[in-house]
Amino acid sequence: MGEETRVRRPEPFIRKGVLILMGVAAVVALTCFVVAAVLPSPNVAMFKDPLRSFLTGVGVLAIAYPLAVLGRAIHRKSAGSPYFEGAFIAGAINLAAFVCAGVGLACVGFGVYDLILWLVDHP
Asked: For 100, what's the count of Cα atoms within 13 Å in the CB-facing half-sphere?
């Protein structure tokens, strides 16, 4: 008689805080790419400019975060499904996020490396 049936509401696809962080990441990526494009061209080769490399790396890393969150959410949503399409899409999105993260870390690393070389040459 005192039993209450509670219906558990499903968790949202992506929570509000994560959506805000994804928006911030998109703004950071756009800002980094615009600043890198507007900077005056250096006197050296473009890939030897540490500031551009660092900005590009941060921008690509900012793109990787929303991709990773979306891939995880799709994977979680399709986990109970007997079909493979959801897992395949989640895997493809996670692979894109992994590639973006690797490229972003490489760009940031090359930017730091070029900055160290520049500091060694100009004491």
From this structure: 18
* Side chain identity at residue 25, one-letter code: A
- Return d(Cα 32, Cα 23) in angstroms, integer: 14
What is the number of other CB atoms lying within 10 angstroms of the CB of residue 6? Answer: 5
Count the neighbouring beta carbons within 10 Å of the beta carbon of residue 32: 21
Q: How far apart are the first and last CA of the chain?
A: 82
> CA-to-CA distance for 59 and 55, rounded, in angstroms?
6
pLDDT tens for each residue of the chain, 123 residues long? 556 777 776 666 678 888 899 999 999 999 999 998 898 877 777 667 888 889 999 999 999 999 999 998 888 888 787 888 888 999 999 999 999 999 999 999 998 988 888 889 887
Q: Where are the domains of the chain?
A: 49-123
Q: What is the pTM of this model?
A: 0.79
